[in-house]
Amino acid sequence: MLTLSEQALLRSQNLIDDRWCDAGLGARLPVADPATGETFANVPDSDAGDARLAVDAAAAAFPEWSRRPARERAQLLKRWHALILAHQEDLARIISTEQGKPLKEARGEVQYGASYVEWFAEEATRICGDIVAEAVPGRKLLVLKEPVGVVAAITPWNFPLAMIARKIAPALAAGCTVVAKPAEDTPLTALALVWLAQQAGMPAGVLNIVTASREHTPGVVDAWLADSRVRKITFTGSTPVGKHLARESAATLKKLSLELGGNAPFIVFEDADLDAAVDGLMASKFRNGGQTCVCPNRVYVHDAVHDAFVERLAQRVGALHVGPATEEAAQIGPMINARAVDKIARHVEDAVARGARVVTGGKRVRTADGPHYYAPTVLADATPAMELSCEETFGPVAPIFRFRDEAEVIRDANDTPFGLAAYFYSNDIRRIWRVAQALETGMVGINEGAIAAEAAPFGGVKESGYGREGSRHGLDDYMHTKYLCQGQLG
Ligand code: SIN
């Protein structure tokens, strides 16, 4: 049992039309401790019927919510933001417990998620259209921004608070109403967040949430896909699921924001500051145990600095503390489940079989807490023939590829269907502009490993999806543009 200062944060029901309720058919979804796989809580296992009830509520609430003055919507979001920060420690404990994120990082995630709520509260009051110079006398041409309508938000397990916050906050700021479904592995943080929105005074039906198992999720999502009242789907998750959403939403031509898989390159040029590059890789690769879409998946190091870089990196990685996420000292917690650890082990075994050298780590770890841990790992002599070069490992494994020239490394970095994030370290200003422009990704970290921020547009290109989250672009994605032409004014 998870003990919190505010025990009411621990919800075990859906919220539909301001009412906490069980799934219509009464089914339950067990929530497992990622370290052991053992159940420690349960929530509703909802189906299509529950999903439709949530849309009924969101559709009914939309006319009133969308007409509210932006400042009122902003004030509500600000109250929600304050409540999230006031409950930071409890929320961090829920995240750590259900997701396995080390407690220190979980506290950071609460702040990170809250920053989107604050940002979009502020942006709500700055929604502007245009008045366009008329081409014909006696006419006025005006452009309005309007909320798209009911938004379905489908969120992943790796940032159980921040991902749902950065979808819901702009939707509400724009004047949309929301139906949300968090990942089956991590429903408790999302329910707590929605409970706080209710405490902040969110009107009935404006924000609804249903939880569902892997088996029932297709039923919930298909109900939303088929419903013409749902005007937008925002999704973070795998590319195959993103493609399914794009195909199936075509029947009602919904707007889509898809933040999908990545395969980020991290390039260290011969003119880089090596200590800064090691710091950057530690921050971006080992955050959340390597379970983020923007994590470097392929580390390219120039031949001239390769050995020095690998040695410094291995020292830092070997010193990372692996242990229960809720312990203050933990730097790498458990992976999300047994399947995740199996995939990491498979990638490392495949790499070693194809000639990679384990510099540090390279094995499963069993702590007193449970079996779902993997040692932070550095592999040298990685090649494009290895599985980990084509597929996201989603774990604490840094494979190092040696390269000799810029053109070769750009070609290899771009040789993937994915295009979410890329990183590189160099001190040559001409190279910096050349490489930043040549990389086929939506985001580029230049001498920086931690790039996400509420004020920046987060999103990818190619098969990493489309749409942006955060920044003014993130708000625009929840609105459509309406053109008014008024004549007879001459
Ligand atoms: C993600 O892994 O999709 C999100 C990571 C972030 O917001 O930095």
TrEMBL record:
Gene Ontology MF annotations: succinate-semialdehyde dehydrogenase (NAD+) activity
UniProt GO BP: gamma-aminobutyric acid catabolic process
Active site (record annotation): 259
Gene3D superfamilies, A to Z: Aldehyde Dehydrogenase, Chain A, domain 1, Aldehyde Dehydrogenase, Chain A, domain 2
Ranges of residues in domain Aldehyde dehydrogenase: 27-483
Entry keyword set: Oxidoreductase
A Pfam family the protein falls into: Aldedh
UniProt similarity note: Belongs to the aldehyde dehydrogenase family.
PANTHER family for this protein: SUCCINATE-SEMIALDEHYDE DEHYDROGENASE, MITOCHONDRIAL
NCBIfam families reported in the protein's UniProt record: SSADH
Protein's UniProt name: NAD-dependent succinate-semialdehyde dehydrogenase
Organism: Cupriavidus necator
